[in-house]
# Entry
Amino acid sequence: MAENENEKGTGRRGTAGAVLGAATVTTGLVSGVFYVFACAVMPALARSDDRVYVQVMRNIDDVIQNPVFFPGFFGALLLTGVSAWQVRRARWLRRWVWAALTAYAPAFLVTVAFNVPLNDALAATADPARAREHFENPWVAWNVVRTLLSTCAAVCLARGLVLYGRGRRQTSAYFVSAAGSSASR
# Structure
C-alpha cells in the first residue's frame, strides 16, 4: 500500500486519523465526567447529610457501570494506546500522543486502584456516618488527580489531532502543486 509522506509511521492510510480522533473524543468525554464530579457532583453532595450522601454515591456507582460509560472509559485507554503505536514513527506527532498515553494511563489506574475500591467499601459499610468519613476526602482527592491527568491527556490528543490535520493539508497541498508543475509533466 502506498503511503504519502504524512502517513509514514502513522499506520494504514486513514486509520491513524480516525483512531486519533476517537481517542481524543473518548478521553475528552471521560475527563468531562471526572470534571463534573469535581466541580458539581461532589460539592453538591457535601451539603447533604450522611444518609443522603451515601445513598446517592451508591446509586451513582450502580448506574455508571453501564454499556454507555464503559466503552468510553476503557476505549480511551485502548484507542490512545493504538494511536500511540500507529504514530510511533511520526516524530512531529508522536510526542503528543505518547504524552496523552502517559497521562491517561495513570488516570485509569487511579480509578481502578483508588476510586473503585473506595466505592466498593462505601457500598459494604452499613453505618452512613462511618462510611462517609472513610470515603469522602480520599475519593474527592483521587478524583481531582484523575481529572487533571485525563484533562492533560485530552489536551495532548487534541493538539496531536490538530497537528495530524495540518500535516495532511500540507502534504495534500504539496502533491497538488507538484501535479501542476512542469517537473511533473
